[in-house]
Amino acid sequence: MLETLCYEEKDALLQNSHPAAVMLFLAVLFFQALLFAHPLYLMGIFIIIILAVVVSGAYEKCEPYLAMSLWVAVLLVIVNTLFVHTGQTVIWRSPVLPVLGRLDISLEAICYGAVMGVRFLIVLLAFALYNAVVHPDKIMSVFSRFAFKSALVLSLSTRMLPAVARDLTNVMEVQQMRGVQFGTGNLRERLRKYSWLLEVILISSLEGSLQIAEAMQARAFGSGPRSRYQRFPVRPRDGIIGLASILSVTLAVYAKARGFADYVYYPQLGTLAGNFPALVWPGLIALALLPVVLMGWGWRHCLSWRSKI
User: Could you give the maximum distance between any two Cα atoms of the chain, in Å?
Assistant: First the structure.
């Protein structure tokens, strides 16, 4: 799990783009997942984010999150199916059960739970992709132009969990080399062994904070105007990512405002092919984001694209 928390350079398009453009792209995916409840719209967004994960080489980073979110999605379907009984299309009716009474399993409850599961998948994958393609120092450098003290606090906070996890792994390996077996013994003995780890981690964290403070003092932090070690120029690929994201979210808001993205689950399921705009607009919104995926594929398989974008 430690590897999934740490940033790893994959030489992907999104990793080599301006962090503000990448953040806009991921924010649009996140916003659209919360905006829509229509199955076709959510499936279009889900396909785009899966393709973005693949072309970014981030599947290994996102796989643990995807596996966890699949279990949560299944749980959403089960809970919604068992506890929501407003659907009219009953596909199974249980006998009278103690406390729960009679359970009606409706098609509407299953479909709504499945759609909410897909929405959860999109949201979690958006955060997982952010963790895989956005370097923490880059995004904090962008935010530091507006509030550098707050950005510093956030940067140190986001660094804390991977650093503590790495130190914990190192300490456990050292203790195991000395003969400490964390999986043996009764509960009291195990608690005593793990308490040693907490003591070492606490001391290590305090020493690390002192080292960070000394490094900040050596760099004269807060003594005058800030200087920048690294700048992020805006390239054509950043403009394409930004324009594609803005176009997609504009189409999404327009479709939602005009009622093209409305869908009824209760008391009876609506028809997916009820009107022509309901079939066209999901494709348009997804196609608006497709250039980002195509550029990501070209970045990995066509080296001549890199000099052009």
Answer: 75
